[in-house]
Write a structure and sequence with these properties.
2 copies of one chain form a homodimer. The first copy, chain A, has 384 residues and is α/β, with parallel strands linked by helices. Chain A is built from 14 helices and 13 strands. Chains A, B: Belongs to the class-V pyridoxal-phosphate-dependent aminotransferase family.
């Protein structure tokens, strides 16, 4: 049946009808006063969402483009950086940093485990000459469903005093509390097709004062992603290059919805849905890939033992028209991932769990009484 | 009155209803087989539109991002390049090239005049050591309404034999005939909010075999705009990073419309509308900024003498809800620009001219019998 597709992947995430329709409006000129008003409203709401008084700059790019901007604007070739690697995205930022000539030291953990803040601490504390210029960390590692302890890693960065912290918050912003000013995070990048509840196409970079200081001496060549012109234009409610006007309409509508819901409600909803997903998966007798204490509130990875992950995805799609994500790289075929961020409700999670129970039953998964998953999720909802 | 706005600017251009509604569909996963089919269709139609058998790669970026990719993938710091400068965009590519460490020689013409192909020829013919690595040319200079003689410049490039030709075709593709394979153009960049009839947010780069050869030795650092992964993914009907799914829906719909109309009809429509605009402007006694022989078929710039350009724009917007573009940089306040590319019909042009006549009449422009502009445009239409 057409038009019944349900996205439970960690991006793109479902988009509210009001956002979809906002995007279907005729574009207007991006240099018009009307569009200037939209930019002004959006930029103000982005600061609210990022819990910062500093700049939040909007780029026409995917999340990877935003992370590239987050790295190249503040560093120079040869700079020493620490890069947290415990999943596909951490690996990508290390690879990207090397592409721009940075001297990368990987601080690694097994995929499915969180990064050890003390490993950063040891390197940072030993860096008495202050040669480390930046620590690059993925907050919520989408590929594994692991949440890294950004706050603890950041404390070591703050003790170091000199180096910047650059954060991939692609599946954090709008889903998981990341108080940028309170934690003094220097650069935080994200993308639109996640917690923002809008389609892909926009990248965001929050830049704090210490990062702007570093910008002055950074020499990696740049033009399209040079953030200074974005900052200068934002101060005039404008953009240096043509913005994706219809996506900006969508962003405006989505940010209005988020303000109406409120940050604490948004974070509580993601936490509740995550707990429900995890309790349901446990009740169904499926192993969770990430431990409870390092669980992302954006995506839950499951590593089934008695059934094949790809067969679960296949039945979920064919019979119930629900898209789950597969594993990436070495996790391909080993895990499946339930995305639950952005425009996701308790009902969506129940729906997904009920369909997953039916799927597991069909695939002959043993030791599961049908209903236990939904019951476990229900208990979480009734407690919150 | 809300909802009556009419865009007659050179981007963003009006978007057909079918494209707007296609964009309002729920996103699907970009790694799904369904989206793979969309990518396959779109890529095939992009090759048709670009009149090429080579790769046409789609980036999540504005046109400037596409031009950056067109430059940095094929050159190395210190490389000598010639850059055509006769407007804001030519100047931008020179500035961008310098930002990436290229040794730029500007081949300039006055704003409003076209580049002299022989000026390129003299430099290329004198380059017996073959030190020139690329010639960077803006085909249709949006800031002045000037069409540069790309075919003639390219002939000198082909005589040189070694250097690449890199073309900004942002307001050419889908509006002006630019036969990429026939002319052996190496790299051609464009953006979605122009002839493509979709909102901004997508950039396109057509890359020929000689450019791919140059790619192998090019050393400007890159990651997000590294085109090799885009090519590799395109061969598998995929993308290296999350594409802007809803804009891709729009692109799919727009390309279907373009195929239905046919390339020769599209080009003839743009040429007809351009001639109508220019004849009407002449009949109204307003000076055209670009000479007939170098007129872009995307935008017509007018340099009024008896009335102020900004007052024309203001009345056009307030009374008739038609957006015209102003002048940029040193042309600010001196010219106004009528955009007529993409989803533009004879009727749109007549509407714009009629409103312009009324505006000029209101502003006290002398020596104009109301009706002469519409009459002149009508004559053009009846002749074609």
């Amino acid at each position: 049946m057409d038009g019944k597709h349900m996205l439970m992947i960690p991006g793109p995430t479902p988009v509210p009808e009001g956002v979809l329709l906002a995007q279907a409006k005729h574009p207007i000129g991006h240099r018009s006063s009307e569009f200037g008003e939209l930019i002004s409203e959006v930029n103000s709401n982005l600061k609210w969402l990022h819990q910062t008084e500093s700049d939040v700059l909007t780029l026409t790019a995917s999340g990877t483009g935003a992370m590239e901007a987050a790295i190249i604007n503040f560093l120079s070739p040869g700079d020493r950086v620490l890069c947290g690697c415990n999943g596909k995205f951490g690996d990508r930022w290390a690879e990207m940093s090397e592409a721009f000539g940075l001297q990368v030291e990987r601080v690694s953990a097994e995929w499915g485990q969180s990064l050890d803040p003390d490993a950063f601490g040891a390197l940072l504390d030993a860096d008495t000459n202050r040669t480390i210029k930046a620590v690059i960390v993925t907050h919520s590692e989408t590929s594994t469903g692991v949440l890294n302890d950004l706050e603890a890693i950041n404390r070591y960065v703050k003790n170091h005093g000199r180096c910047l912290i650059i954060v991939d918050a692609v599946t954090s912003v709008g889903a998981i509390d990341i108080p940028i000013d309170e934690w003094e995070l220097d650069v935080v990048a994200s993308g639109s097709q996640k917690g923002y509840m809008i389609p892909p196409g926009l990248g965001f970079v929050a830049v704090g004062p210490k990062a702007w200081d570093a910008y002055k001496t950074a020499t990696i060549p740049k033009f399209y992603f040079d953030l200074a012109p974005y900052r200068k234009s934002a101060a005039k409610d404008s953009t240096p290059f043509t913005p994706p006007i219809n996506l900006m309409y969508g962003l405006q509508a989505a940010l209005q919805m988020m303000r109406a819901e409120g940050l604490s409600n948004i974070f509580a909803r993601h936490e509740r849905v995550t707990r429900a997903a995890r309790e349901a998966v446990k009740a169904m007798g499926l192993p969770l890939f990430a431990p409870d204490e390092a669980a992302s509130r954006a995506v839950t990875a499951v590593e089934p033992a008695t059934v094949e992950a790809e067969r679960v995805r296949s039945v979920m799609k064919k019979q119930f028209d629900i898209a789950l994500a597969g594993g990436q790289n070495q996790l391909k075929g080993r895990i499946f991932r339930i995305g639950h961020l952005g425009f996701v409700s308790d009902r969506d999670l129940l729906t997904c769990i009920a369909a997953l129970e039916a799927t597991l039953h069909e695939l002959g998964h043993e030791n599961m009484t049908p209903g236990v998953g939904v019951a476990a999720a229900t208990r979480v909802f009734s407690m919150s």
